[in-house]
Each structure stands twice: as C-alpha cells, then as structure tokens.
C-alpha cells in the first residue's frame, strides 16, 4: 500500500474516533445534567418540607383559640407573638430550582401564607413515588405545581381538604 492511501485510512480512523468521543461526551453531559436536576429536586422537596413544617408550627402554636398563618415568610424566623421569641425556621432558603430568594406563595383565606412553591416552569424528572404529604405532586407539569401547603386543622382535628390536596 502506498503512503498516501495509509494516510487516508488514518484520517478516516481519526474522524470516527472524534465522532465517537463526541457522542460519548454528549451522553455523559446529558447524564450529568439529569443527575444535577435530580439533586435540585431532592433539595426542593427538603426545603419545601421545611417551609411547610414551619408554617404548621406557626399556625398550631398561635396563642388563643383563633389560629393564624404567617403574613410573610420572615415571620417564621422570629415569631414575636410570645414573651420569648419563637423560631419556626432557622433561615429563609432560596428556591433550589431557580436559585432565587423569591418563592411563590399560596395565600390562606385570612390573607396569610399557607404554603410556598417554586417559580420554576421546568418539567420535573420525578413524577411518582412521592411521600403521602407530597402525593399531589405526581404527574405535575412543572415545579411550580409542587405546592408545599399546610392547610390547618378543622375543629374536629382532621385536616381540612384544600385545592392542593396536600393535607396536613
């Protein structure tokens, strides 16, 4: 074989190698991106649960017979309704999906905040196998549909049904 024909085969071999490496790199990038999104989802479920639990604590510990929701998220940090301030949440968490400090809020009938949700319109990777409290998230079209809501207790002590179906 002549030297020029061997160079042609080497060139084609290098092109095939580069194309293969590119495809493998793209597949790895997609896999890594998917893993990052799953990590952010786990963080959203944790943080959203923390907000829901803090709202529940604020609501249930309201002095007197008439229960109230917090009027702003900052009320969860330092509840001054008591002689000694009570903390229902250690800090305000950013939305893991957007990285922003801003959350969507679910308003209660009294004007307070009964829940939070991400402002992300991305489609969730997780679509099933949620906990009982998060069962309404199944099949959600976006993270904004994952609403972390505490609906309070009815006078009978049962969770009152609500539009989000997340129970208390």
At a glance:
This protein is mainly alpha-helical and 168 residues long. The protein has one helix and three strands. It has one helix at 3-60; strands spanning 104-107, 113-117, 147-149.
Task: Explain what you see.
The protein is mostly helical. The chain has a domain at 41-149. It is 35% helix and 7% strand. It is built from one helix and three strands. It has one helix at 3-60; strands at 104-107, 113-117, 147-149. It has a three-stranded antiparallel sheet. A hairpin with a 5-residue loop joins strand 1 and strand 2. The longest helix is centred in the N-terminal third of the chain and has 58 residues, at 3-60. The protein starts with a helix and ends in a 19-residue tail after the last strand. 24% of the residues are buried.
Key traits:
mainly alpha; single chain; 3-stranded antiparallel β-sheet; disordered C terminus; 1 helix
- Spatial ordering of strands, largest sheet: 1-2-3
Strand content: 5-15%
Average pLDDT = 84
The number of distinct β-strands equals 3
Whole-angstrom Rg: 25 Å
Molecular shape: elongated
**What low-confidence regions span 5 or more consecutive residues with pLDDT below 50?**
154-168
Q: Between the first and last Cα atoms, what is the distance in angstroms?
A: 79 Å
Count of DSSP-assigned helices:
1
Instruction: Give the helices and strands as they follow along the chain.
Output: HEEE
Helix proportion range:
25-40%
Largest sheet: 3 strands, antiparallel
Q: Which structural class do you get from the secondary structure elements? A: mainly alpha
């Amino acid at each position: 074989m002549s030297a020029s024909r061997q160079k042609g085969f080497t060139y084609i071999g290098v092109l095939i190698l580069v194309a293969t490496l590119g495809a493998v790199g793209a597949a790895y990038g997609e896999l890594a991106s998917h893993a990052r999104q799953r990590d952010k989802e786990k963080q959203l479920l944790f943080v959203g649960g923390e907000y829901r639990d803090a709202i529940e604590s604020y609501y249930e510990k309201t002095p007197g017979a008439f229960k109230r929701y917090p009027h702003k998220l900052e009320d969860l940090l330092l509840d001054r309704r008591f002689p000694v301030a009570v903390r229902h949440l250690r800090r305000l968490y950013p939305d893991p999906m957007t990285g922003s400090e801003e959350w969507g809020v679910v308003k209660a009938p009294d004007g307070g905040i009964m829940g939070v949700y991400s402002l992300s319109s991305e489609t969730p990777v997780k679509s099933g196998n949620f906990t009982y409290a998060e069962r309404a998230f199944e099949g959600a079209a976006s993270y904004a549909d994952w609403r972390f809501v505490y609906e309070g207790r009815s006078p009978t002590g049962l969770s009152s049904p609500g539009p989000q179906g997340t129970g208390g």
